[in-house]
Amino acid sequence: MITLEASAKINLTLEALSRRPDGYHEIRSVIQSISLCDSLSFTPGNKIKFKCDNAAWDAGQSLVTKAVDLLKEGFGCQQGVTIELAKRIPLSSGLGGDSSDAAAVLVGLNKLWGLGLSLWELVKLASRLGSDVPFFLCGGTALAQGRGEDVSPLPPLPRSRVVLLMPSVRRCNGKTGHLYSILNPSHYTGGLKTEEMVSLLTRGEELSAENLFNVFDSVADEAFEGLAGCRRQFIQAGAEGVRLAGSGPALFTLLKEEAKAQKVYQNLKNMGLEAYLAETKGSIGVV
Prior knowledge:
This protein has 287 residues and is α+β, with helices and mostly antiparallel strands. Helix content is 32%, strand content 29%. The protein has two domains: 2-153, Ribosomal Protein S5, domain 2, CATH 3.30.230.10; 161-279, 2-Layer Sandwich (Alpha-Beta Plaits), CATH 3.30.70.
């Protein structure tokens, strides 16, 4: 049996530069993996089976199933596997859980089935599953460009605490596409926020709340009814620089001091809200 962790992520920056001819948006983003993780276990078998401890998880709608099919069909694999998923990353939260799980499947089955695929070959497969999936093969701190699949490692972010708030707002499939559809040219930026972030990381300097940016922050309140109130609660709990995590609706704040992060987290819990306390993670080896 092989067991792997699949980390969540936050976008330290996320800029939309323009709409591409293929219908996607050209983006520039600094992505950071965090310690909130799912766990996937791979056990050899004669058939393909999925088990998950979250009844709301649907294998038929997940990239996990698509990742398995991609390997079986692409390489003529006859082996089976039972994949057991311990789900800790909230579903449809903007934290990249499904993409991270899919990346873990590529890595896990590459080992279990002895496919011998290189990191570069895994990246090419990952890009066929989704724009975020290639990032999760290595994680850490990275620059994402194109539609998100062009990923380059960056100097690591100094260890920081991350407090997450999962708002009790309606979530649905296709929310990312919906958010992009709301954007118009007035929301497009030239990538300067991301360039500034890359420069800070390269120089090893501390980040501030002003350095964080997410283009969807300007339209998310329209897409997620009640999100504005959740932001206010987060700030009341002591958060600074609250940002949307990816395509949301999860919100996060980045803090250097552990005591401060603990206080904000506990304040959210005392309000009866769904909150998580995590920290930033470095890159991992996958092959």
